[in-house]
Structures are given as C-alpha cells and as structure tokens.
Amino acid sequence: MNELQGAGVALVTPFNADGSIDFESLGRLIDFQIDEGMNYLVSLGTTGETATLTAEERKQIWMYTSKHVNGRVPLVAGLGGNHTQEIVSQVASFDFSGYCALLSVSPYYNKPTQEGIYQHYKAIATASKLPIILYNVPGRTGSNMSPATTVRLATDFEQIVATKEASGSFAQFSEIMRDKPADFLLISGDDPITLPMMALGAAGIISVIGNAFPRKVATLAKLCAAGDYTAARAEHNDLLKLTELCFVESNPCGVKYIMKQLGIVSSDYVRLPLVPVSPLLQQAIDQELTK
After folding, report:
1. Total domains in the fold of the chain
2. Which residues hold pyruvate (predicted)?
C-alpha cells in the first residue's frame, strides 16, 4: 500500500483543562501535520489515549478527523483490544468513510499464545472491509508477536498489509524482512530507530514526536527512502534527545508538554491514570527545546 509509505503520525487527543476533548486544537493539529508534509495520519492509536476514551468519544473523534482531513492525506483508524469478539463487532459497525486502513494492536493482558494471536487477527481480517496493519508492542501488551506469526498472517490474509513493529528487536525485524511477502510493509513503531529500520528495508514510521515536529520526521523518512543516510543522520540526531525525553514518564505526556510549549495545542492535559510531566522533566525538555 503506497498510502502507508513514509512518515505517519499517531495523533494525540488534545483535551481542554476540564478534561473534555478539545476539537479546536485537534483541527489545528491535523492542519499542522498536513501543511508540514506528514504523509498519513493515525487516529486513536496508543498516543491518542484511546484507553481512556468512551465508545461515543471515539466515534466523535474518528468522525471529526475524517471530515477535517477531507481526503487531503490517507487516514488510518486505531481499532484493537483484547476482547476479540468485541473488536470484530466494532469493525463490523465502523464507519469507514475517509479511512484507508485499520491499525490493530496485538491482544494485551490476556497473554495469548502465538496461535491465539493468529486466530485473533484472523477474526478481525475476516470481518474488516479495510486493510489491516498489525501492531506489535510487547512493552505494553505483555506478549510478543513472533516473526513467524507475523509472516503467517501476512501470507494467509491479503487483508493484512503491514505491521507496526515496536519490539525493539533487530533480529525480529530482519526475520520479518527476510520471510514476508514482497508487498507486505514493515513500519517502525519507535522514533529513535526509524533510520536503522528503514536502512533494513522498512517502509517508514508511525511517529510520536511527529506530533510536535512533523516536517523533521517527514524529511527523515524521505531521506531514508532515497538512501541519503548522511543527511538523514542529521535529522535523526536533531530529534533524538527530545524523543527520549518524551518517554521518560510515559507517552503521550512528554510530547503533549512539548506541543503546549510550542503553541500547537492549548493544554497538556492527560487523563488519569496518566499525569502531566513532572517539573524536573519539564525543565529538561525546556532546555532541549532552546537548542
């Protein structure tokens, strides 16, 4: 899928100071991403604090985002969980207008076997009218989707077109690249390793730091795709420290603070159990931003 090449961003969900959804800031953020060259947008991934949104709020955000994007860039919806039949029901009733694919996280907390993970995605693929991006993030789910399972799913279901890999294992990335179908895409799920993953053959990144610096992330992905790794290293090094700081106290607390400091969103409010970044981390981020 050419629509998933290059730089995508997992959009934050801006909130007002009272905890309600700040749709005005969300609209500004979407325009900012498109104007700064982001290739595609992901609505309601982990960075969107999806776990703390009600079903009605999720529908409102998906609908608003689709209407505001209005076909200007490809749009992916994050729709996953650990209750397979519930996800299948959501997929069956999802309004696909304006969306080109679904990003679905591997089941968390239950700690299924590899066969359980395979059967989970098989059920979703059978129900979905849209292509599916697998999402492997063991640090959050408590289980790892093996390269063999990823390749099995990619081979068995045309509907499964890509994987967002955030395992951090280059042995795993290499095995997927070696064994996958030719048109199946490997996408980086971690900003700091986008450059080496794209050097290995990954199609691009679904970024967190891109919420604050979309042009730099888009440029990094474009340079990597062109094989200009000398220029890409400069962009990589420029973003590295701020990206690291974003994850010191959990995502998206850090990037929301950066976005507030840059005037991209009005508030860095996050919903419990997350809390805003500590004064010490604020100071470290402010010092890095001045550079």
Report:
1. 1
2. 47, 206
